[in-house]
Task: inverse folding
């Protein structure tokens, strides 16, 4: 299956290279017209050599026609003669693209796209107009592969194969290595302190529903916290904003108590729906924090502007606070108000670390490999570019 | 000393209210020298010829109105002053009312008429899908404008068939939609894009500016004030710079004072 | 739970609000028309929202719930006028029953059907049909996202990284090197397949510094943003309502 | 039945994903037309999807009222607000909803004078909490937070006119922070997040990630 796929990919790549190799033509020193490569078939590219006396006051005008003998009355292009030089030709060639579907009225272009267009180049100065170059013609046609996007396509293929392989690998080899996430130790410390003080711990879900990656990660972390809490015999309160997140959280907490061998200690009302909107959620939680003074607060998931009020109220009650969010705009406030903060992708990594799910571990590994490659590419690319070699930058040129 | 930290937060609230109100009442003069990113947006619009097309996407709702509405108004003043045709649209349902109000009010000031000198296309759902669809064909994305007039053949849209034909697009954004405009709009259909954003999003723009994916950017009320200065039409944003300065100083003093007490009284564990 | 002092504060504020408005209307500063009444309504809503700063109270809760309702109602009506009416009702349904210039656009049937399937999410028996619509939207979105993100973010953001480090000036060179170090070290910080010890640990610490400076910048800008919102509201109260400032 | 509930959605996601990904590499006109048609369909479906949010909101508040949850009375105001707005929207200034939208109706008045002030004010409340947090909680509690706060103070002063009055170097340093360290970190975050987006998209197309389909069988 994979072999077949790879053969297919390569055949496309080879085909696409051959078709464009001819398009750019050699350095014939005359006025040329050819189908623009990598387009939808609605334009023609014109190329002609520079001539002496090009300046701001001299213009090139190109007239177009659908028959070889003219009349050449439709103006297709008018540029200053010292403009639009071909890139990399050292100003010795001009290159311009003419959109053919805008040249003539509908009837002409409705006859299908396979009409041949004829172009006549005229050089105009203030004094006289001289026709230079001969008439050139070309037929626009649509292309089936944009070869300037070849590198993009290869990255797509590599990325896909890598992701699929890593997930498959993670399923086969349980316990793929992930570095220790410091924040996870902090969670245990905070729970230990809550137990010492005999006060509850509060787990606050973010404001996204169950379909968001942040919330899924939050559920995995909740499972771990609930397990510890069940062992330590500390009450745990979990606040939600969405009914689905609520029922999933209840399930997870219940299971953790079961796993710890203390199903009797599970109180369903401790996992509750605090509110349904942003500000009421803040108000409800601030009330709980000031009334019950939990010893440890966990803010896990995706947060918006409410993060500041929540963590400020929590800090005022003297609780140990740990935040984990991938909302980068809110991170500054968590960092300055909480004792420990898991930033961005650390949240996903922590969730993969705790859940040990091959799907999470595998895709995390795939992303790590890509990141590693990019780090190498960036360093080598910059060094080579400093030495004047643009090998890497030409491979990664956007199409 | 530690008691000072435990004062009622409502006393702090009063300080903030005063820091904002007093400079507004006494109208301190503050010069707002324009910065380079604002100038590059101004220069871009200023370089456009009469009857060019500028697309403004009003992607915000009332919650960011105080930052982005002044920006929108300053931009519209500039465009209408230069007889540029404005195409307005929004990807937020609650953006319609704000956008419509800004375009109509300022259009009236310059005697511009809807459908001829400007058009407000209204709202469509699907953010990135709307941008892609407009990139292929503006008339399938918006078959009617906000008031139900047919867009095909409209004078304000003459010569525009897709996003490729737009001379400059400005995305006024309150959230992550600017990324969709860059990824699915600017990079796919190759038009010049500028972004005006709430200050919260401001720092996110720098990688895009350096990679030349954005041409010009206005950040928050400060950006709006600079643009108002450049257009020569000082309004609410410019007037807001004095209280903005005072309240920033107040917040900095709060942070320094709070930390000073925190360290002198010994960090509590 | 509502204390007597709170009630008396509330009453006094209401009386003051009433008197100010009567004066404004009587002196003609606010017209007795849709605009004038509108400003008074808006001020009432604004003050109700700010009452939260004193403490959470029923007035704030009423204003907030009213706002949630109005916002939802507004969105629904806008969706009708901007999407359903032009793209479904007038494109498909009206031409089926009435002679119009253009015939019905039958291709609209597919998304309309898929759109209606979405509502089946709330039914117990047919909720599986809603999955077709979600699969369509999410699958399409994912497919479009991959190549566009590779192009617009990965390739385009790598491009400036391949500039020569030596830019001609001393500070320019220092800055280019700093950007390179910053990007690499932050990427390293978010690299989970290796223990952060030794050299890698050192690089990731540098990454944390860069992250913290960047978060500091975001912090400053967010303070700026929130204060701007407050300034805007104060301008509304002092200028549009009281007319104290010009 | 499992075929309709599980297999067909996965086939749809797979086919649509692959088709749209490959569409990017094909410049031919037929591929452009495909993109045009499919995105238009997506726009219309997204329009319908917005009603789902409305349904959940109303459903939840209706349940609060029905079950007489504490504070259920406030939920009535959600229905009052929505009801009045929808009625005036449908009335459309006497032209009714099947005609084109009219300008300056009561519907617009409600937007201008209820939704705009309420929406704008509710987030400006955060300005006050920001200041109080600055005073009471933003602490340089470790090395990281210290770096963060120093950068924040420089940027805060450097971005307003008063910064220049204190010292002409503050805006220069602020500008440097924004365009060197901030740029570097934000670029790395951007690259990391985009890799995540691409990986998630790949998992969705190949049917590995199915959270978006909701739970159940």
Result:
């Amino acid at each position: 299956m994979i072999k077949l796929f790879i053969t297919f990919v390569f055949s496309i790549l080879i085909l696409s290279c051959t078709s464009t190799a001819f398009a750019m033509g050699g350095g014939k020193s005359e006025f040329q017209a050819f189908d623009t490569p990598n387009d939808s078939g609605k334009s023609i590219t014109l190329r002609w050599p520079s001539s002496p006396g090009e300046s701001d006051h001299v213009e090139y005008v190109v007239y177009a026609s659908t028959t070889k003998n003219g009349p050449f009355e439709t103006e297709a292009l008018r540029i200053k003669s010292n403009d639009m030089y071909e890139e990399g030709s050292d100003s010795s060639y001009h290159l311009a693209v003419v959109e053919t579907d805008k040249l003539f009225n509908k009837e002409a272009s409705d006859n299908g796209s396979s009409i041949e267009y004829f172009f006549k180049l005229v050089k105009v100065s203030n004094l006289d107009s001289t026709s230079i170059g001969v008439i050139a013609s070309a037929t626009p046609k649509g292309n089936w592969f944009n070869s300037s996007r070849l590198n993009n396509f290869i990255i797509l293929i590599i990325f896909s194969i890598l992701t699929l392989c890593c997930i498959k690998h993670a399923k086969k080899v349980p316990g793929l290595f992930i570095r220790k996430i410091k924040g996870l130790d902090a969670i245990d410390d905070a729970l230990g302190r809550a137990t010492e003080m005999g006060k509850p711990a509060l787990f606050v879900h973010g404001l996204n529903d169950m379909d968001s990656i942040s919330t899924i990660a939050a559920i995995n972390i909740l499972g771990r916290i609930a397990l510890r809490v069940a062992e330590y015999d500390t009450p745990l309160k979990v606040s939600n904003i969405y009914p689905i997140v609520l029922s999933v959280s209840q399930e997870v907490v219940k299971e953790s108590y079961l796993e710890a061998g203390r199903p009797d200690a599970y109180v369903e009302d401790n996992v509750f729906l605090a509110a349904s909107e942003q500000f009421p959620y803040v108000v409800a939680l601030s009330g709980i924090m000031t009334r019950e003074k939990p010893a440890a607060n966990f803010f896990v998931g995706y947060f918006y502007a409410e993060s500041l009020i929540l963590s400020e109220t929590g800090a005022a009650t003297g609780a140990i606070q740990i935040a984990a969010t991938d909302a980068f705009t809110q991170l500054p406030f968590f960092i300055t108000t909480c004792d420990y903060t898991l930033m961005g992708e650390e949240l996903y990594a922590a969730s993969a670390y705790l859940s040990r799910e091959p799907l999470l571990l595998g895709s995390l590994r795939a992303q790590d490999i890509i990141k590693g490659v990019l780090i190498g590419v960036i360093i080598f690319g910059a060094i080579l570019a400093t030495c004047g070699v643009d090998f890497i930058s030409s491979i990664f040129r956007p199409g | 000393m530690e008691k000072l930290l435990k004062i009622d937060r409502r006393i702090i609230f009063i300080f903030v209210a005063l820091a904002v109100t007093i400079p507004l009442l006494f109208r301190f003069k503050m010069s707002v020298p324009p910065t380079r990113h604002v100038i590059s947006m101004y220069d871009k619009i200023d370089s456009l010829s009469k009857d060019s097309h500028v697309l403004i996407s009003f992607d915000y709702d009332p919650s960011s109105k105080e930052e982005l509405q002044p920006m929108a108004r300053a931009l519209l003043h500039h465009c209408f002053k230069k007889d540029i045709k404005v195409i307005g649209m929004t990807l937020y349902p609650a953006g319609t009312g704000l956008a419509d109000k800004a375009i109509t009010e300022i259009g009236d000031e310059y005697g511009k008429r809807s459908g001829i000198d400007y058009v407000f296309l209204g709202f469509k759902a699907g953010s990135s899908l709307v941008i892609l669809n407009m990139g292929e064909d503006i008339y399938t994305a918006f078959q009617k404008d906000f008031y139900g007039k047919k867009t095909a053949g409209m004078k304000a849209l003459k010569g525009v068939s897709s996003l490729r034909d737009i001379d400059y697009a400005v995305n006024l954004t309150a959230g992550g939609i600017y990324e969709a405009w860059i990824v699915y709009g600017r990079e796919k259909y190759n038009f010049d894009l500028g972004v005006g954003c709430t200050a919260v999003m401001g720092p996110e723009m720098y990688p895009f500016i350096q990679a030349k994916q954005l041409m010009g950017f206005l950040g928050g009320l400060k950006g709006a004030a600079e643009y108002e200065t450049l257009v020569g039409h000082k309004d609410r944003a410019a007037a807001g710079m004095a209280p903005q300065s005072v309240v920033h100083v107040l917040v900095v003093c709060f942070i320094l004072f709070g930390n000073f007490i925190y360290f002198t009284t010994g960090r509590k564990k | 739970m509502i204390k007597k002092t709170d009630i008396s504060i509330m009453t006094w504020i209401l009386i003051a609000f009433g008197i100010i408005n009567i004066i404004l209307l009587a002196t003609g500063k606010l017209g007795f028309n849709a605009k004038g009444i509108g400003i008074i309504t808006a001020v009432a809503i604004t003050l109700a929202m700010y009452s939260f700063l004193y403490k959470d109270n029923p007035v704030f809760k009423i204003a907030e719930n009213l706002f949630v309702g109005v916002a939802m109602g507004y969105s629904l009506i806008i969706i009708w006028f901007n999407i359903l009416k032009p793209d479904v009702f007038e494109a498909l349904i009206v031409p089926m029953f009435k002679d119009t210039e253009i015939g019905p656009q039958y291709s609209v049937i597919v998304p309309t059907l898929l759109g209606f399937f979405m509502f089946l999410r709330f039914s117990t028996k047919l909720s599986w049909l809603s999955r077709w619509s979600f699969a369509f939207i999410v699958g399409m979105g994912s497919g479009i996202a991959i190549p566009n993100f590779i192009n617009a973010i990965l390739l385009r953001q790598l491009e400036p990284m391949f500039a020569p480090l030596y830019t001609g000036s001393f500070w320019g060179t220092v800055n280019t090197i700093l950007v390179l170090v910053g990007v690499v070290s932050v990427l390293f910080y978010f690299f989970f397949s290796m223990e952060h010890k030794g050299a890698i640990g050192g690089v990731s610490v540098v990454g944390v510094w860069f992250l913290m400076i960047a978060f500091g910048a975001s912090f400053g800008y967010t303070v700026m943003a929130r204060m701007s919102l407050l300034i805007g509201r104060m301008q509304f109260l002092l200028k549009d309502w009281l007319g104290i400032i010009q | 039945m499992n075929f309709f509930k599980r297999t067909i959605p996965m086939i749809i996601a797979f086919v649509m994903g692959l088709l749209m990904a490959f569409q990017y590499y094909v410049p031919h006109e037929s591929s452009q037309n495909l993109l045009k048609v499919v995105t238009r369909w997506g726009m219309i479906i997204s329009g319908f999807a917005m009603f789902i949010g409305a349904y959940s909101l109303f459903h939840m508040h209706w349940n609060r009222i029905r079950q007489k949850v504490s504070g259920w009375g406030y939920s009535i105001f959600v229905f009052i607000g929505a009801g009045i707005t929808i009625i005036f929207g449908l009335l459309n200034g006497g032209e009714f909803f099947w005609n084109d939208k009219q300008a300056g109706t009561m519907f617009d008045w409600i937007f201008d004078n209820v939704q705009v002030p309420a929406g704008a004010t509710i987030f400006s409340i955060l300005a006050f909490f920001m200041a109080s947090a600055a005073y009471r909680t933003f602490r340089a509690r470790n090395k990281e937070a210290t770096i963060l706060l120093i950068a924040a103070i420089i940027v805060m002063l450097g971005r307003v006119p008063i910064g220049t009055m204190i010292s002409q170097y503050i805006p220069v340093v602020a500008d440097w922070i924004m365009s060197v360290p901030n740029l570097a970190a934000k670029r790395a975050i951007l690259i990391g997040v985009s890799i995540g987006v691409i990986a998630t998209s790949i998992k969705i197309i190949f049917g590995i990630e199915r959270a978006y389909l909701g739970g159940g069988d």
Remarks:
- The two ends of chain C are 43 Å apart (CA to CA).
- Residues 7 and 201 of chain C are 60 Å apart (CA to CA).
- The mean pLDDT of chain C is 91.
- Residues 163-241 of chain C form one domain.
